Amino acid sequence: VVLHDWSKGTYANNHVIGSRLAGVGIRDHADPIFTGNLVSEGEGSGLVLLGDATGVIENNRFVSNTCAGIGIKGNACALFDRNVVTNNQGYGVWLQDTSRGTFQNNSVEGNGKAGFAVSHQAAPRLHSNRITGGKQVGLLVQNQAGGHYEANIISNNKAVNVMLLGHSNATLLRNVINDSAGGGVLIRGDSTCTLRFNTMEGNYRANAAVLDNSKPTLEENVIQNGMGRGLVITGNAAGQYIGNTIRSHSLAGVYVGGNAEPHMVRNIVCESGASGIVVEDCARGCFADNSMSGNASAAVAVQGNAAPVMERNIVLHYGKGGIWLGEKAGGVFTGN
């Protein structure tokens, strides 16, 4: 099925099965309503939007296609509501170029690559979707892509639930990000993404990891119940970490290594199975007005050649010490 030029109309309750290319192509300035259809087992993608296409894509099923379930390129911008995108061999949904679109109440499950992949300068809006059970990444935002991602459940994706790469600048708000064997949120490259009011829990590696030259903002998130570390900041990473609750991890609540230089203010770090905050290697950074309590080892451990600035923190001794300094460690500690 190909809709082009200025095509409109309603296309409802059809089965498009086994196409050699895309099952459905919507391009140019086409603006259809596509509802209640099954698009499956194609040799290409299930649905492709190109050019300046728009439309309403609702209550469809895109299943077991060889490439993506849904692919969006150019300046295409449509509303996707209550669709099921599952068991496609490629991406569940792939946005490229400067495409946009609103995705709400969709179920994106069990796809071979990322559930949602957002590339180039694409900037969609995702609200109240389920992105679960993927064989690789749940949500991938890369290159210079952005977008707004709110109130989604991103869970049980094999590689990592959320991966933010390159110069991406997405905003993640009030999402639940949990139960991945590969980790909760991984931020790499030069990303400047913003994460607020999210819950990251039960992931088997770090619940959140910030690497390379990334400078994200993490504010008022709950990061908890992880099988590894809570928050990892390493490489040359920096960024702002404000008012987060980081609790109940098997290892350190916060680990800062490499040449990282974060700014951490008003965080609660508690009930870790190891130290509350570990700063090591050549890491620096400012840690102010935080509270560390109930950690099994030191509340704060500064090791290697690390030299943080720690001011006005509340450090409650529970395990092996309040603030532990290694032989070569430095730093400034005032008003704690």
The secondary structure category is: mainly beta
* Main sheet makeup: 15 strands, parallel
Overall geometric form: elongated
If strands are numbered along the chain, what order do they take across the biggest sheet? Answer: 1-4-7-10-13-16-19-22-25-28-31-34-37-40-43
Beginning-to-end CA distance, first to last residue: 67 Å
Give the count of helical stretches.
0
Give the percentage of residues in beta strands.
Answer: 35-45%
> Uncertain spans, ≥5 residues at pLDDT below 50?
none
Helix content: under 10%
The average pLDDT is 97
Number of strands: 44
* Radius of gyration, taken over Cα atoms and rounded to an integer in Å: 22 Å
Task: Put the structure in a nutshell.
By secondary structure, this protein is mainly β. It has no helices and 44 strands. The N and C termini lie far apart (67 Å).
Tell me what you see in this structure:
The chain has 336 residues and is mostly beta strands. Helix content is 0%, strand content 40%. It is built from no helices and 44 strands. A 15-stranded parallel beta sheet has the order 1-4-7-10-13-16-19-22-25-28-31-34-37-40-43, with no helix packed on it. A 15-stranded parallel beta sheet has the order 2-5-8-11-14-17-20-23-26-29-32-35-38-41-44, with no helix packed on it. Strands 3-6-9-12-15-18-21-24-27-30-33-36-39-42 form a 14-stranded parallel beta sheet, with no helix packed on it. The protein is elongated and about 70 Å long. The protein starts with a strand and ends with a strand. The model has no long low-confidence stretch (mean pLDDT 97).
